[in-house]
Design a protein that fits this description.
Mean pLDDT: 93
Number of strands: 15
CATH topology: Lipocalin
Radius of gyration: 21 Å
Low-confidence stretches: 17-21
Structural class: mainly beta
Number of domains: 1
Strand content: over 45%
Largest sheet: 10 strands, antiparallel, barrel
Oligomer: single chain
């Protein structure tokens, strides 16, 4: 029986052209995505400002997470893109499935099927070799995030991130909201068993969880995959939402995802034991009530 993971592109009917015949374009291979295939498991932290249809417009949900991220063991083969302003080009890629649960409450939080693509340089538009992540989220959002890949010696560098909201278009936020102070009681933040193991330091800078994930480890090489749905620095990408998320013009969106940025680090660990580690940080801006609310997810995963 043929399964989905057995699927591979087989280009057919190359576009005719004058002498010499062009044949099919050659795919670039997985390139720096080659470290992704396999099953990764681990833990992380999720923080999301949710709309609240009550006496206050927001609720801050905080979760310790347990995650499984599975990539197919083989690439998709040569994926042809037919060219008009330039010759045909071909990409390759790998399929993935991400599943995230709340580690305290054992409840499902996130399910994401998608693809990572390795894209060669193009002339129309003039774009350097790039990578792209295509994802579908059951809440009603799909994304295409494109960016660059690089290999560097040594461990990753983590830039601090925060949950500070800001007026749409005015960001980033410079001051925390009351719900970000775990010492301040509120009915509009995760409480009780769901807050077990979550610290103020994690809320202040979710990327501090990633820094803790490399303590005591010697990392000899890091592949950095940085992608965004913004049209800069690479033209392309974007976010699409269902009608409910987009809301109505008179009242604004219910929770419109407008921007996704993420960085994945594929790390080669040499000590204390040789292993492969995958870390990522992702920020999604959700717009509602005239404010952009950061939704930040981080995780540290080990290849099984």
């Amino acid at each position: 029986m043929t399964t989905f993971s057995d699927f591979r592109y087989t280009p057919v009917n190359p576009t005719p052209a004058p002498e010499p015949p062009p044949g099919e374009p050659q795919a670039p291979g997985l390139g720096l995505l080659a470290g992704l295939p396999g099953t990764w498991k681990g833990a992380g932290f999720n923080a999301i400002w949710r709309p609240s249809h009550s006496t206050q417009d927001r609720f801050l949900e905080l979760n310790l997470t347990a995650e499984t991220l599975e990539f197919d063991d083989q690439d998709l083969g040569s994926i042809p893109n037919r060219g008009f302003m330039q010759d045909d080009m071909a990409m390759t890629g790998v399929r993935y499935l991400q599943r995230i649960n709340d580690a305290n409450l054992h409840a499902g939080l996130h399910l994401e099927p998608g693809l990572w693509l390795n894209i060669p340089a193009t002339t129309a538009p003039a774009v350097v070799p790039s990578v792209a992540r295509m994802a579908s989220i059951p809440h009603g959002t799909t994304i295409v995030a494109q960016g660059t890949a690089a290999s560097v010696d040594g461990p990753p560098q983590f830039t601090p991130v925060d949950l500070n909201p800001f007026v749409v278009g005015a960001g980033p936020g410079t001051a925390p909201f009351p719900e970000q102070n775990l010492a301040a009681p509120t009915a509009f933040r995760t409480a009780g068993p769901g807050l077990t193991g979550i610290t103020q330091a994690m809320v202040d800078n979710p990327n501090s969880v990633l820094a803790a994930g490399i303590e005591g480890k010697t990392i000899s090489n890091t592949v950095v995959l940085s992608v965004t749905t913004s049209s800069t620095p690479i033209v392309g990408g974007g976010v699409a939402n269902t009608a409910f998320l987009a809301g109505v013009p008179a009242g604004g969106p219910n929770a419109d995802a407008v921007l996704v940025t993420s960085t994945f680090w594929i790390e080669t660990i040499s000590a204390p034991e040789p292993s492969m580690q995958l870390q990522y940080t992702q920020t999604v801006l959700l717009n509602f009530n005239g404010v952009s609310w950061p939704h930040i997810t981080v995780a540290t995963l080990t290849r099984q």
